[in-house]
Amino acid sequence: MRQVAVDTWAEHAHLLNPGGQYASGRAANAVLAQARETVAEILGADPVEVIFTASGTEADNVALRGFAGEPGARVISTPIEHPAVRETVANLGKRGATVAMLPVGEDGVVDITDELDEPASVMTCMWANNETGAIQPVAEIVARANGVGTPVHVDAVQVVGHLPVDFHALGATTLAASAHKFGGPRGAGILLAKRSPVPTPVLTGGGQQRGIRPGTVDVATAAATAAALKEAAGEMDAEAARLTQLRDELVDGILSTIPDTRATVLGREGVDVLPGHAHLLFPGANGDAMIMLLDSFGIEASTGSACNNGVNQRSHVLEAMGLPDDHVDGALRFTLGRTTTDEDVQFLLGRLPEVIGKARDVAKL
Ligand code: PLP
User: Fold this and answer.
1) Other Cβ atoms within 10 Å of 185 Cβ, number
2) CA of 128 to the centre of ligand 1 (A)
3) pLDDT tens, residue by residue, 5-43
4) What pLDDT, in 10s, does the model give residues 89-129?
5) Among all residues, which ones are annotated catalytic?
6) Relative to the CA of 178, which ligand 1 atom is closest?
7) Which ranges carry the Aminotransferase class V domain (predicted)?
């Protein structure tokens, strides 16, 4: 958590229920309204469109189940979504929805097909992939789906706080973010939801937050989320440039010192990648060995999605991209962030050749 988020949380932790009409309630509500305004301004939304949730996962669920929870619904998605969307779409399918998928290329980017021209209950696509960092053509997807009246949910968890977001200009119906991705508290998410169409509430209760996400709002967490987002937005351009430079130095260093290695999507024609993402393929290396050897040096990296509950699973993203098995098994993702320094990159570059050599030996056993 950014220090500003810690301080803001502590400052407001004593506030009472923002739904109260008495003085303490009004005081809490004023802080909440300010948090909503800050988030709305930074993300190009109206304050009324800002819904605070308990995670990015919850924001994705509220939108998707709210648009496609009824049997007979039609959902369009992609094979590279984070489990928060992937498992939700699979569950909607089990409950009677028809599910269609847009294909993804070997470059990690979703192809736009005429599947989008047939109206659906919802189309859902991530803005940037959490594993490869590949940025997806969400603006084109929104325009095409909206053209036939299909609401579009954008999972922008990897993008908010890192790249500019303008909800109104994008035209999406709903958009999900997660506070811990930009230095806010863990267990805090944001759902931007247009005035219409509105997802049918998944939870029922006291009608807070337009009834879309009822329940007493945690004002301190909302304020800390807004404070973190404001600081992240203020440093966004400089930080993106700094991380891009560090990331490129890392990837160039790896490609020039470790044989038979490739960057998964970086450098491919027409593919934009998140500034802090370095995703590499070391064919013939054992994934678990790479992670454990790096961990022994204090270097924290992942093979699949770090969110898969601590279990190293084969990446469904790389499989969907059609990569051969030995490439999928030897995939490694480094994520650079605001605390990453040039010394960190040099430290990693100094140790990685040995790690990959050993992990390739392990795979031969
Ligand atoms: N969507 C994407 C693309 C993510 O990367 C993540 C988390 O890493 C999520 C959704 C889930 O967010 P949360 O961890 O806040 O539930």
Assistant:
1) 21
2) 11
3) 999 999 999 999 999 999 999 999 999 999 999 999 999
4) 999 999 999 999 999 999 999 999 999 999 999 999 999 99
5) 307
6) 15
7) 20-347
Mutate which of 160, 274, 307 for ligand 1? The one with the most ligand atoms within 8 Å of its CB, which is 307
**CB contact at 8 A, 184 and 165:** no
Residue 27 Cα to ligand 1 midpoint, Å, equals 32
Positive or negative, the CA dihedral 193, 194, 200, 206 is: positive
Tell me: the pLDDT tens digits for 194-208?
999 999 999 999 999
Rounded to 10°, the helix 219-234/236-257 angle is 70
CB 167 within 8 Å of CB 174 = no
Asked if residue 191 has its Cβ within 6 Å of ligand 1, the reply is no
Report the distance separating Cα 115 and Cα 136, nearest Å: 17
CA distance linking residue 287 with residue 303, whole number of Å: 6
Encoded tokens for 358: 């050993």
CATH-assigned architecture of domain 236-363: Alpha-Beta Complex (3.90)
pLDDT at 186 over 60: yes
Global pTM?
A: 0.97
Q: Read off the pLDDT band of 312 (50, 70, 90).
A: low
- Taking 70 as the threshold, does the pLDDT of residue 133 lie above it? yes
Which residues is 35 bridged to in the sheet? none
Distance from C-alpha of 343 to C-alpha of 358, rounded to nearest angstrom:
23
Domain residue ranges in the chain = 3-231, 236-363
* Residue 306 pLDDT: 47
pLDDT bucket at 314, cuts 50 / 70 / 90: confident
Contact (CB, 8 A) for 53 and 177: no
At residue 333, the pLDDT reads 96
Distance (Å, whole) CA 195 – CA 168: 11
Cβ of 123 closer than 6 Å to ligand 1, yes or no, is no
User: Ligand 1 mean position to 353 CA, how many Å?
Assistant: 31
CATH number of the domain at 3-231, please? 3.40.640.10
Q: Which residue stretches of the chain are H helix?
A: 3-12, 23-43, 56-68, 83-94, 138-147, 167-170, 219-234, 236-257, 287-296, 316-320, 325-329, 342-364
